[in-house]
Amino acid sequence: MTQQGVRWSADQVLALASDAASRKAGSRLGAAGPWSGAGSCEEGTVWGLCKGSGSKPYQTIVDIAGPAGPAYKCSCPSRKFPCKHALGLLLLWAGEDDAVPTVAQAPDWAEQWIAGRRKRSEDKRPAGGGSSPAAADPEAARRRAEKRAERVTAGATELEQRLTDLLRGGLAAAEQARYGLWEETAARMVDAQAPGLAARVRELGAIPASGPGWPVRLLEECALLHLLDQGWLRRDRLPEGLAATVRSRIGLPASADGPPVRDRWLVLAQYDTVDVKLTTRRIWLHGAGTGRTALLLSYGAAGRAPELALPVGLALDAELSAYPGTGGHRAALGERFAAPAPLPLRPPGIPTARAAARYGEALREDPWLESVPVTLERVVPVPDGDSWQLADADSKLALPLTPAARSRPGLWQLVALSGGAPVTVFGECGHRGFTPLTAWAEGAGEAVPLC
Amino acid sequence: MTAWEDLVTTALLGTDRRPPVTGGAGREAPEALLDEAAVATVRRRAGLCPAPAARRPEPAAEDPRPALPAAAARRLAMLLSGRPGTGTGGRRGTSPDLMELLPQWLAAANARGFAAPPQMLPALLDAARGRTDLRPAALAFAGPRALWLARLNQDWRFALRAAPGGGTTLPDPEDVEAIRQLWQEGLFAERVALLTALRARTPDAARELLAGTWATERAEDRLMFLDSLRTGLAGGDEPFLEQALSDRSRNVRTTAAELLSALPGSALAGRMAVRAGACVAVDHTGDGPVIAVEAPPECDAGMERDGVVAKPPAGRGERSWWLGQLVEATPLTAWSARLGGRTSGEIVALPVADGWQGELHAAWSRAAVRQRDADWARALLGAPAAPEAGGPGAVSLAERAKLLATLEGGERAGWVAGFIAAHGLSEAFQLLGVCPVPWSAPLGRAVVDALDIARDAGSYPWSFSGVMGLAERCLDPAEASRLDGLLAVPDEREDASPGAGGYWAEAFQRLVTTLRLRATMLAELEHAP
User: Fold this and answer.
1) Mean pLDDT of A287-301
2) Nearest-CA neighbor of A311 among B86, B120, B74, B102?
3) Is the pTM of this model over 0.90?
4) Residues 53-112, chain B: which have Cβ within 8 Å of A?
């Protein structure tokens, strides 16, 4: 039932690339030269033969409308994903109307793969609604969960001990402490199967080297870690929502068991954070009908782009189910009813004072929250010494940008887009400031991704 | 000290050294401290308010140009993402070099008067920062908002330097008082920009402005100002330039003389014609007419005042040095009367006695370029297929390229096409560079045929990479279909270089791909937004 819809823009295609090198290599293949037999079909599949260095051209296929984002297949030996041929093919498809004609029938080599995919996804669908392997033996699952809870409790107790020791000796001593001390504690938390605690501990280790004001930040983070430990140890006395937040912050698995909400979900922003082992992709969505903001997370092993890719400015007709806790933003993508299509919609915005208040309110549900998604309306980027602000056009107030946002190239795109005039900006508003992610010029104009 | 600061101090020193003031019963001190800090942290975060806004920058000037068509905007994003340093070294494969197409794209977009998409300005400025040759077109396309941005970012300061008047706006041409004030009080760069702009619109007013303060300017400044009179040079400038011939600075004198000699009706040109005429004559004593040359015996004060440099560069005889300067500054129209009423073609064809031909023809070439005399340039260039045109003749390739530039575009391309047909591509690069883009049909065909011949001769394509690169950028995209026959990999011949056939096919494929891309690029700009 999927439709190919409108072709993507080059930016949207390049957003799929796993790194800058792929982007560059893909761009160079995005012209008709090396390609032959390229075509696409209504169902949202694009294919083509790309002449490489060998005698036989590479066979490249991309399924744009896959239920979990685009899927790629290429006969080249590259381990990049998507490879440069897939990117080049999509750029060709995005760029020139006649280079990739829409045809009714795919060639045999492409048809085989398409049919295989379709079959697999149909096989999966009835299974998805029924029983999962975990549910097969509820008794065993319960025992496993209990066992894990015991381990986490042991870890949280140990961490509490370390924190009290730290404060007894003073944070000043922590400045000299080796980074290795924190790494070791983090490893203990991994053993305790509490990845959320491990990540927080690892971040504590970096704070003493983070410049002026570090004691304040270190105390804040120690206190919030203490709060999380205490929350876990007394979770049976917490209201259900807060208890779910604690479990999720500790890093226990949860299932997105909220009721599925169907809407046209506009992609507001997509960005990756890269770790040594893991690439995390965050995708912010805005429900055109419900007005809700939702966050999709997708992960990729180091060096590989996470599989889910949704270009900014497109909307997908799909069902989302919320995860429990953490303010209710995080959701899982359920069934998709159509391929993403452009939607000229902007989320309604608020002034800066409302945005700061909204973060404060959200802390009630989740005191560990770093930031909330917010759309600011009629704000002007204003230089403020070494830093920048987003100032209300109609009041004398402004939100500072986060230190990270100041050094990103997206800042200059935002400044250029504004030219000193008010713009609408979507981003994350938190205690460190505002991180702009997407902007719209006043009046008409497409969404401009800033990250 | 606030309660929070108190907590931070305690935490820094440790509860062993500084027991907390508060602290619940039954709990250990560190734990009580952490409890309080947690409450305080969440309270501090929840209570955050926006800050007072800093001073807002003046909004950027309005850009009245229409927005790019969507497809063209996407193309620009793609061309800019090809930055930086693509196509450096190594084999280039079959895909086009996107960065090389950016200048052409910018020229086409500027010709159609489109505005740049504001969010692409940072990438555009970065590209222009790395490549000075891109700057004029990139900054013209980037428009007023790019200058506004450049004032906020150190990295883009070059844009302010490149813009006329350092980014400040020049006064209205009608506003005589404002012009006079800027001329009298402005910085040097502003004054040069003002003079240049004024000269382009009202040449006489610009000269009068300069003449008004001439005596008080510094020598270096006088030279720069004088240089800006090149634009719109006309007879009316002569009295002023004559006066500058007796300037204190030698560089100013030389420049004034050079400008005067480009005015064929000027008194200086007349004096030079008399001097040169005394040195060059037709000698009928032999079998046929021959040009006899008698170089000037001395460089007198009058010659020096008229800009002749007395001292030759190392390795040149002083008499031939003086002769060259005299002939160069003589109006070419004077020679017909001096040399028996002959046309330029007949004069150039005359033999020159005693080995003076090189010196004399080179001086005439410089004169033809300076005076933009197409008739003499044509005569000096000769027939493109002539055997001496190919070799290192009397006129060097660089000088020939300059002579070609005085001809009208179509004739220029025709001459180079004839040259390539007769002599191949090995000497053609410099000459191709002065031909108008896109290449005319005869020129394009001559280049493609010559490439085909080079391939058949069995050499590798990278011996012609310069011409190939030019062809990618300059061939008319309509020619792409004529290249189809060259794309196949031919059977390898015995005498060919190993693998050359495949590389040639690859190079031609890139050529065709690039031409198609250029056609698409231009078509995208034609769409109504």
Assistant:
1) 91
2) B74
3) no
4) 53-60, 71, 74-75, 77-78, 81-82, 86, 93-96, 98
